[in-house]
From TrEMBL:
It comes from Oscillatoria acuminata PCC 6304. InterPro entries: FxLYD_dom. This is Biotin carboxylase.
């Protein structure tokens, strides 16, 4: 009777030892299996970069950020080249814009705009910028590039219908 009790206690002890090993392994496998995909940054090449006036309807009443001085509105356009083979979302566009006197018109920031989604291959894009009205044109657009994510990282508030 005592031997069978000792044998039972030994089996129970082994069970708990195995449980201490198997349970963490099972949790690790479960977390790996159900974890979301990594949202790696993907570089996007920018080509054919240009700008144009927004026009009266978009620039009426526009003011510079930080004060109430008059501002001009411009549309930056170009071609985004996504060579990753997968769609890229929420791509931030970086670059430097110089005025006619070769002064940086946005010295405190290099993020100029955003592209919501960039499909694989070449795709056209455009976004709006505002600059103080006293800056002389023509502008020089330099060092433009973009970086985005392989998956959506922000709620798509711009896709909701507010009508």
């Amino acid at each position: 009777m005592i031997k069978s009790l000792q044998l039972s206690l030994t089996k129970i002890g082994r069970f708990f030892q195995l449980k201490r090993i198997i349970l963490p392994i099972a949790i690790a496998i479960g977390l790996f299996w159900f974890s979301p995909p990594a949202l790696a940054l993907t570089d996007i090449q920018i080509a054919d970069i240009a700008y144009k006036d927004c026009g009266e309807e978009l620039s009426e009443g526009i003011v510079a950020s930080g004060d109430m001085s008059a501002a001009n509105c411009f549309i930056i356009s170009g071609t985004a080249k996504n060579t990753s083979g997968k769609p890229v979302y929420d791509a931030d566009v970086f670059g430097v814009i110089y005025d006619a006197n070769n002064n940086n018109i946005m010295p405190n920031r290099t993020r100029i705009g955003n592209i919501q989604s960039v499909p694989p291959g070449n795709s056209d894009f455009e976004f709006r910028i505002s600059v103080p009205a006293n800056l002389p044109t023509p502008f020089k657009l330099d060092k433009f590039k973009a970086r985005g994510f392989s998956g959506r990282v922000k709620p798509l508030l711009y896709e909701t219908n507010l009508e």
